[in-house]
Amino acid sequence: MVYSETLFPVRYYETDQMGIVHHSNYIRYFECARNNMMREFGYPIEMCEEDGVTIPIVTVECHYKHPAKMGDDLRVVAMIDEAPLAKLRIRQAVYNQDNVLCVEGQVVLGFLNKATGRPTRCPEKLLVAIESHLNDR
Amino acid sequence: MVYSETLFPVRYYETDQMGIVHHSNYIRYFECARNNMMREFGYPIEMCEEDGVTIPIVTVECHYKHPAKMGDDLRVVAMIDEAPLAKLRIRQAVYNQDNVLCVEGQVVLGFLNKATGRPTRCPEKLLVAIESHLNDR
Amino acid sequence: MVYSETLFPVRYYETDQMGIVHHSNYIRYFECARNNMMREFGYPIEMCEEDGVTIPIVTVECHYKHPAKMGDDLRVVAMIDEAPLAKLRIRQAVYNQDNVLCVEGQVVLGFLNKATGRPTRCPEKLLVAIESHLNDR
Amino acid sequence: MVYSETLFPVRYYETDQMGIVHHSNYIRYFECARNNMMREFGYPIEMCEEDGVTIPIVTVECHYKHPAKMGDDLRVVAMIDEAPLAKLRIRQAVYNQDNVLCVEGQVVLGFLNKATGRPTRCPEKLLVAIESHLNDR
How high is the ipTM of this complex? Predict the structure, then answer.
């Protein structure tokens, strides 16, 4: 399994008038954690886009278990179980500083040729990074 | 079926460097459309919260079909098929000005007693509004 | 004077745990109101960018007078007092449904050639629209 | 002078279709850097609010010098030159990983009694922290 985690101290503007992190922000944390994983792979998203491939989201699913609050230090996880073909599936989760599961979900990503706007394959560099990590662990 | 729709011209800050509306914003449009529906019911969310009940999200699911762009006038739909018990399920969709389906999804909402933080029933006023609309159409 | 106004019902995700609209959102309302003004001019920002000119912000200044809340219907104003040369200055204000001034501010915008990234003049179509409105009133 | 800095890797959702960080986000970085400073003081904002004092913004001013991009690691600075009376003035700046000044600005904050909604004095704990740092350096 590919595993990556990133820390996110809650930001004040992410709270809403219920006094908790607004639910849309976890979708954003998910993305940040994925992009941080790509950076750890040595192939950050901006490099991928310069190489002509964008990675739009196809599906997101999110289950809210426990509200995060201002002052929380969130740990956001991205996990890949299998090498992507046309689509990349990533499992994600958010834990607080007490290891309480706040949110879990999964996303499916596609790959688009930036020039044509048409579906394309997972870029070689990303595929190699994922496969090497899948074999490692 | 309860049906409500709201218009959202795309806002510049909602776009990202792919040149399309960032995917997290549809989750926000969904919420705005739901809150607008409650306003149409004559029972806006802020009144509900003053009455001591918050409506946190339990699950969101979102399928991205077609990217929205700056200049688009989006129509965001909220639909309820059955009266809520402990949970309220809402189907949602986003169409652009050419009636192209951009995103579809569904959310499940819970009801919390604001004072105790414990689950509670759907507020009577909201239930009555939903049921009266369910019978109407 | 060029004058344009746009209505913004407060969105739930724009509130923060103080129970008011988070201050950063007024900066976003300002932008939306400016872009709506350009749309009224018949020259929306996306058309301007297609014509090769982006309009980045140079300075923003914002004075917070009265907090906006969920349920408020905000009226956001953009006013231009003189035709732009290298820079465009716009005065802005936000009023609530009771005509209370919530925020006032001003922004200065520049014009960049999208291809070269260098400063350029105000696009002719925008200049003509501004000048014709300046003379009208 | 009180000096505090915080690192912010740019997040994808913070970019816009100009391919740069949307200008409203610097206002948010400013706030995060201020709140991080309070945390360093041992008196985080959520503790201050629990003590009954909120710290709404009165004025913000922001000068945009150089655009930040996806992949940038921003360093956001908060500086206090004098102990607050009714208002707290903070100078702020954003630098990228090459030490290029991206944005500079300043904010003025007020103090409100949460219960009454009326202006109040700077909380003692915050004042002591600021004064002790002012004397240190």
Answer: 0.96
